[in-house]
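Here is an idea for our session: we take a single protein and study its fold together. Which protein we use is up to you, so please pick one and set it down. Once you have written the record down, we can walk along the chain together:
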Amino acid sequence: MGSDAIIQHKDNKKINLKQSLFKMFLAPIYAETINGLMWTGDMVGKYLWDNPVAKAVLGPNLFANLTNPIVLANEQIGKENKYSFPKLIKHYATILEDKRTEKEKKEDNEKNIKNNIFKNFKRNFVDKVDNYGYKQTVKHTLTSWNIFQIINYYAVPQHLRTIVTIGPGAIWSYLSTSWGQGRHNQGKSITKQK
């Protein structure tokens, strides 16, 4: 929530309370996600190789590239729904449903485009992930976040790793929120790039 308020103030010189509350409701989910990501590194150490580099690369950094699109999609879905948390929940509950307008359905029929649950998932989730934001999160997960996690697994006791990660995680939240706002590529999704 704090990182979002900083971005809002920087960009708009004001803070949208509804947007900040939306982020506040998501914060515990994201914090638990960090805890789960740290656990993946512990499992790598336990079952594959007890090495800080292996734990960082094959654990939280690999799986972060799967969770970052969720953060970016939540940003877009929130924006489209005026930052309504109940509408976000409803969106995910109906993610495989056809949410096209009648006009979109007619255009698809004219182009002979068949609809199915995979296309619904693409339209309702994948197309919500900002291209620029996704590229930035992948690039920085593979570089700077990897270095941080290697140091974390090397120098920090296991019971403190999640706590140590929360501070940099707030910075990461600030950056991914900034990257995911679509202002860098006019909101093109990862599947609509040229």
Notes: The longest helix spans residues 17-47. Residues 2-179 form one domain.
